[in-house]
Amino acid sequence: MHQLTLAEIARGLADKSFSSEELTRALLARIHQLDPQLNSFISVTDDLAISQAKAADARRAAGETGALLGAPIAHKDLFCTQGVRTSCGSKMLDSFTAPYDATVVAKLAEAGTVTLGKTNMDEFAMGSANESSHYGAVKNPWSLEHVPGGSSGGSAAAVAARLLPAATGTDTGGSIRQPAALTSLTGLKPTYGRVSRWGMIAYASSLDQGGPMARTAEDCALLLQGMAGFDPKDSTSIDEPVPDYSASLNTSLQGLRIGLPKEYFGAGLDPRIAELIQASVKELEKLGAVIKEISLPNVQHAIPAYYVIAPAEASSNLSRFDGVRFGYRCDNPKDLTDLYKRSRGEGFGSEVQRRIMVGTYALSAGYYDAYYLKAQKIRRLIKNDFMAAFEGVDVILGPTTPNLAWKIGEKNADPVAAYLEDVYTITANLAGLPGLSMPAGFVDGLPVGVQLLAPYFQEGRLLNVAHQYQQVTDWHTRAPNGF
Ligand code: GLN
Questions:
Q1: Residue nearest (by alpha carbon) to ligand 1 atom 10
Q2: Is 172 in the pocket of ligand 1 (CB under 6 A)?
Q3: Ligand 1: does its nearest atom lie under 6 Å from the Cβ of 125?
Q4: Residue 15 pLDDT grade (very low, low, confident, very high; cuts 50, 70, 90)
Q5: What is the pTM of this model?
Q6: How far is CA 354 from CA 52, 365, 409, 426, in A?
């Protein structure tokens, strides 16, 4: 049963081949058996899952239908879940039990999903390898010596290892798409404002966006349907109707204009990845797409701009963790200053402390104009590049990552080496655009992802292209050995 996709589960539940409770028990057993190898879960919520599964079965028995009714999923551990520890991968929140559900969690629960647990992640979503978690590194099921990507690495590893069909993730600079690429999944970062951020623990508020991670585009469409929509509790949520994402999957790609940015195929890209990306382009051409070369002249400035803006916003967001109101508090503080200093010094890991310091510096009087303001101007130029490119193409295609998954520990001594891995993903966050990564093949047994970007609110187009590609390729159906 663990091989089933969300779409297959929906059919199996509808025709009564199995109940949600049976499926849930089978997957929980599999998580307990196999997850010790991967460390993809921070909390497994057996009791909650069984009671939600029973409730979903009862709703179905009463005549209710719905693709997600009884579907087992997990949430990245930065979505607040009422009554369940919500740690954000940090010692700071190790003992924090959320008193309410994030909007995404509430909406998905309302649709009938069953929460199997909370997945491991980089501390406060800062990272590209899932090595900065207080709960230890996550292993990539394709090779246990390698990282699964980050920061939604727990969701990625769990779904890739068939511990469950789909999970939520969040993407501030690539944290859905990059781990999806490194574990052979399909992952979608929606348009900024499409999915509510309420109850998502904030990293960089102008960039953060929740989205689905699954094995197929078809499943991402189902999960996104349950997540998207206007939320008055999130001031940056956008009041746009949510289309039927599954309905757009089967549109023909005949005449679809795909742009390949020349800046995404230059130095720094592993030539073996480049070859697989070109092969995916050929497949899309066979499906009727028309390929054009385009240019995004300012994307070379994306990493420096992002690594000013994201830490700046993080330094502000994380000031709330002061040892007073909630979260970790140091033992026997001498006075208030000592309480702040030691609670934050002991509660945050080194990557989070580094970002807080960089961000505080960039925002300080005297440096604000030189760093933060300049980074915001670069952000606008990057957005303008995309707007100009989308005048001539419908979708932009390129690699998701410049390199394959690296060995656990390999980049620990050099944080900037890890930052450079985000080169192709962070532009979509800076511009607020939707982006998707889908499986494009393997090099030495390690997965490679191809990235698609579209204009604002064109998630349906991304899912359509990915679904059509997945009708003529089978990369997304391959399972890692041992799982
Ligand atoms: N790797 C990027 C960072 O460390 C992106 C993380 C994310 O998208 N949450 O900031």
A1: 126
A2: yes
A3: yes
A4: very high
A5: 0.98
A6: 40, 19, 18, 19
